[in-house]
Amino acid sequence: MTVITASPATRPPAPESEPMRLTNGHLPKWAPWAVLVGSFAISFIIFGILAMASGDAINIAGLVVVAALIFLVLIFVISTVVEGRRKGVDRLVTGVVSSAFVLAMVPLVSVAWTVVANGVAGLSAEFLSSSMRNVVGEGGGALHAIVGTLLITLAAAIISIPIGLFTAIYLVEYGKGNRLATGITFLVDVMTGIPSIVAGLFAYAVFAIFFGPGIRLGIMGSVALAVLMIPVVVRSSEEMLRLVPNELREAAYALGVPKWLTIVKVVLPTSIAGITTGIMLSISRVIGETAPLLITAGVTASMNYDLFSGRMMTLPVFAYSQYMNQGIPAQAYIDRAWAAAFILIIIVMVLNLVARLVAKVFAPKTGR
Questions:
Q1: Alpha-carbon span 213 to 205, nearest angstrom
Q2: Cα 26 to Cα 166: distance, rounded to the nearest angstrom
Q3: Reduced to 3 states, what is the DSSP secondary structure of residue 266?
Q4: pTM
Q5: Closest CA to 261 of 271, 275, 237, 253
Q6: Band of the pLDDT at 299, cuts 50, 70, 90?
Q7: pLDDT of residue 22
Q8: C-beta atoms surrounding 260 within 10 Å
Q9: Do 172 and 272 share a domain, yes or no?
Q10: What is the DSSP annotation of 17-66?
Q11: How far, CA to CA in Å, does 90 sit from each of 21, 80, 87?
Q12: Residue-number span of the structural domain to which 271 is assigned
């Protein structure tokens, strides 16, 4: 048998790699950004012509909305023509989701920027180290409100966290198929939608039965906030406990470990990160409440470290009272209100950072 091999001179040349083109069925990475810039340019031209015709300034919000709509239409059409309908729909949905995210961030960024810009002007060493006792007009501070907020929120957490956590443990570990557990779940769902003012009225009514009408105490505010915290703690803890695999429980039972010890040593350590995050979210949810604290803790200009004696000021109530009861000069009261709001945001941010740190430290280790 004779094998005929082609000489190198007679072999066909290898095809050279062609550069990526629009006809290759894939848009280059810069294409969506170019379409976005072009969409804003078209929208700017449209609104610029309308502004010159009417003599008004350019509507920035309308310009952004129209640019987003133009971008969605263009990216869908171009991608469908070049890449096919499936990829075009994918890019359209991606654009819609990204636009929704940006739209959701607008009020958040706006609120944060407004509070920071106005709150920094009212911050000072005196504001953080003094109260409003015997202060009229300029000067004074919110130390009594900061202390009151921390004490009332701490007492509310001490009341609500054990109740909420033990309730969640009962619902997940002991109450499966139980009528009592069904009733508790229904009541927790109802409590989730209770208005904050109703919680304040409930706490006031309970204490008024024993101490008479007109009573105002810091612990009353803690009870009102605890009523709002308990359903959030129950729901978040319940979901985290349900995420623990049953195999871990069964492995502990197989070793002869009692159920209560399995919960303490296996279930809770596995879900402690999520439970901590849920608890911090519940604290962040109630720390800014104003209506229940107006009814229960009241308003005062002096320091008060005793939850069981006298009125106690909090940061939300302080900001409200400063803004609503402006004196002379009015700007001093407004600055104190914004500064109190800024301090409150800082406290909430610190709590969330602590929650993330605890979740990271106590999260189950998956490696060896």
A1: 8
A2: 56
A3: helix
A4: 0.77
A5: 253
A6: confident
A7: 47
A8: 11
A9: yes
A10: PPPP-GGGT---TTHHHHHHHHHHHHHHHHHHHHHHHHTSPP-HHHHHHH
A11: 20, 10, 5
A12: 126-362
Domain limit, last residue, from 122, 155, 178: 122
Q: Which of 70, 74, 71, 85 is nearest to 25 (CA)?
A: 85
- Kindly report the number of other CB atoms within 10 A of residue 204's CB atom: 22
Structural domain count, the chain = 2
What are the distances in angstroms from CA 175 to CA 172, 238, 268, 294, 314? 6, 12, 17, 38, 39
Q: Is residue 223 part of a domain?
A: yes
Are residues 65 and 204 both part of a single domain? no
Give the whole-angstrom CA distance, residue 35 versus residue 22.
14
Phi, psi of 214 (to 5 degrees): 85, 0
Asked whether the beta carbons of 222 and 286 are under 8 A apart, the reply is no
Model confidence at 223, pLDDT cuts 50, 70, 90, reads very high
Does one domain contain both 350 and 230? yes
pLDDT tens string 114-149: 888 888 888 888 888 888 887 777 878 888 899 999
Q: pLDDT at position 230, please?
A: 92
Q: Which two tokens stand for residue 265?
A: 């040593």
Residues 58 and 143 in one domain: no
Amino acid identity, position 84: G
What's the pLDDT tens digit per position in 266-278? 888 888 888 888 8
User: Does residue 135 sit in the same domain as residue 86?
Assistant: no
Q: For a pLDDT cut of 90, what percent of the chain falls above it?
A: 17
- Between 51-60, 66-75, 252-261, 278-287, the lowest mean confidence (pLDDT) is in 51-60
